[in-house]
Amino acid sequence: MNFLIPSLSQLRGVAVLAFCTSVLLTACVAPSGGPMSGGGLRLDGSKTVQVAVLLPLTAADERVQELALSAEQAARMAMSDLKGRVDMQMQVYDTAGLETQAAEMAQLAVQEGAQVIVGPLYAGAANAAGLAVAGSGVSVLSLSNNIEIAGGNVYVLGHTFQNTAEHLVAYATEQGKSRALLVHANTVPGQAGRDALEQALEAQGSFVAGVEGYEFTQQDLVEAMSRVAERNDVIDADIVFLTADYDGGLPLIAQLLPEAGVDPQMVQYAGLAQWDALPSAFHLPAIQGGWFAMPSPQRSEQFKARFQFVYGRAPHPLAAIAYDGVAAVGASVATGNRDALNRQGLTLTSGFQGAAGIFRLREDGTVERGLAVATIEGNQVVVLSPAPRSFSSIGF
Known about the structure:
By secondary structure, the chain is of the alpha/beta class. It is 38% helix and 19% strand. Strand 6, helix 6 (188-204) and strand 7 form a beta-alpha-beta unit. Helix 2 (62-82) packs parallel to helix 10. The chain is elongated and about 65 Å long.
């Protein structure tokens, strides 16, 4: 991934709805619009659909191996849930976390009959795989959250800063917030988060009152909090957005920035990271009462419980993305549309119902996910705005 720290006829619509409700957690699509056509691979309804899953199963980093294994198990669980409903087979290929091997495995998968690829995990590998099979008409549904690689035959399924910022800024605007102060590290993820927030604020017509960056060292982060507070004394922001996550200095910021004078009672705190990820930090001044976006808690808990039941252990937080990729392919194929795996079939405006809530792929290869907005109250996660159940309900 390179994590920056991823209607046909009414009768057919009814059939798809039945499919969605009959399979626990399976992604579902409610097609809209007329017949699909265009370039790219088209399906032969008489043949089994071949799906390739590319993952770094033997990567040098053991943590990446564990993530890859969890993602593979989630993909297999999706296939199991689809059994008997679509004629699909899945083959797993090991990228070893290497771009060259990802390209080789993508080419091998296509040679062996793959009609769509789910994965790879990292942005560089996904980009390499996409380029390697670009001439074949095969789509690559990468698990990356890096929108820089999106486009052409490559899609990103991971949770992106862009999508999170859009939901969070929209909620903040609804609450009357109009003067934003952005605080970010001078790192690739920090700057990407800043850019996503600036674009979302501009789209909403909100005013960016100030932007403060800091070098990613403890000393500069500590010193930067005084600068941020001084800046806020001048601009009088009504909301401060933090791009940092818990591994990127968020606990220190959440403690020091209020102490420096940016009072959470006067200024709303909000963050691009999932602040529910570390309960031991819930007591920090900026975290208590802060706003953050998160996938549908209900859908996420269902997926976790299902995974725990099947494999006897909790899934990696990113495993749901792999499940979504395979299940979305199955749901699209289930429509019987010959263009199910083309851009036309994969970018339906009604989208898919995934393991962590609704999502849809955009024409530019990025993903849009329906997210909830939550806060921390009394050391508990409280949902302020529930995740939408359909894109039509939020007017996107």
